[in-house]
Amino acid sequence: LTLDANDKLIEVSNRFSGATASLPWFAVAVYDMIIGAERLKDYKTMERGLSWFAKHFPKEYMTLLD
After folding, report:
1. Which of 32, 41, 49, 51 sits a CA distance of 20 to 30 A from 57?
2. Distance between CA 6 and CA 8 in Å, rounded?
3. How does pLDDT run along the chain (66 residues), one tens digit per residue?
């Protein structure tokens, strides 16, 4: 993935530790989908999102979702 110069970064906080990571809008959308899928107990969707996130944003994955 390459970020466009117009991609503004959005700061997201880990809901348990409070640690933060900066993400482009599309990664925030995937993060939100992961959290929503978890709440809905849609574990297949959640796992797909986690896999994508770990592949494309490994450092942020460790901060926000691990």
Report:
1. 41
2. 6
3. 666 767 789 999 999 999 999 999 999 999 999 999 999 999 999 999 999 999 999 999 999 998
